[in-house]
Amino acid sequence: MAGAGSKLFTAGSVLTAAQVNTYLMDQTIMRFATTTARDDAFGGAGEATLAEGMFAYVDANDTLYYYTGSAWAEYNRSGLTLVKSQTIGTAVSSVQVTDAFSSTYDNYLVIVGGGSATADVTLNLTFGSTTTGYKWVTEIVTWDSPQATNETGGNNAANIGYVGASSTTSIGAHITILNPNLAENTFVIADGVFDGDNGGGWTRGLVDNTTQYTDFTLTTSSGTMTGGTIRVYGYRN
Predict the structure, then answer these.
(1) Beta bridge partners of 31
(2) I need a surface site. Which of 5, 106, 122, 231 has the fewest CB within 10 A?
(3) Residue 216, H or E segment
């Protein structure tokens, strides 16, 4: 039985098997090399029985799990969880990030930083193998004083444009992606600093289908980029 609470053992007390199992085994953080080793340690002949509230740490993925009473679940109380980190290659015009989305999270945050490009260019976003049905609009405010506002966008386009920017000194993107792995429209909200004299901008878009995506691709509007890191975070449901 899990959840035995605490007990003060005094000199001369008899420590029974039941007390070891409840006060110690059920209420400690166990450590395993892999999730397979963790799963294989319970339920068999001569093995302990799983109980709600057990904790297990897995070395292979540096993750802490707790047992819900029916399955192991990742223990995480933060609002964002790092799903994947991928380094951008050398002199590439596009980067595909696979295994970025799953049923674990409904919504995601993508952050791109570091690196550089061959020129001041913007970044375009596509999902999976979809090359049509993107609808988006961008509003850009220039650095000039007084500021000028420019608008651009696409309807049934091949991608969502202006989700980030690359320059000869840096690459940057801040993208919120909603529902990518659900059988619903995928929505995109991006903001950042764009190329040249364009200044800052805000992009809103969607993919007009109900495809459940697991990956996305960032592509430069021209030229190539080198270095930098793409990090994908899942918002805890």
Answers:
(1) 57
(2) 5
(3) strand 216-220
Domain that holds residue 30: 17-74
User: Residues 136, 188: contact at Cβ < 8 Å?
Assistant: yes
Q: How far apart are CA 84 and CA 65, in angstroms?
A: 19
Distance in angstroms (rounded) separating the CA atoms of residues 39 and 213: 29
* 156 confidence band (pLDDT: 50, 70, 90): very high
Q: In this structure, which amino acid lies at residue 80?
A: L
Q: Which amino acid is at 17?
A: A
Q: How many CB atoms lie within 10 A of CB 64?
A: 12
Counting the structural domains of the chain, the total is: 2
**111 and 68 inside one domain:** no
For 14, the token pair is: 């008899």
Q: Model confidence over 14-66: pLDDT tens digits?
A: 888 888 877 676 667 888 889 998 999 888 888 888 888 889 888 888 889 99
The region that residue 146 occupies, defined by phi over 0 for left and psi between -120 and 50 for alpha, beta otherwise, is: beta
Q: How far apart are CA 136 and CA 73, in angstroms?
A: 37
Which of 74, 108, 142 corresponds to the end of one domain?
74
Q: What are phi and psi of 145, to 5 degrees?
A: -125, 115
DSSP state of 21: I
Q: Are residues 159 and 56 in the same domain?
A: no
Query: Is the Cα dihedral 136, 153, 219, 201 positive or negative?
Result: negative
Examine the domain organization and report whether 97 and 206 are in the same domain.
yes
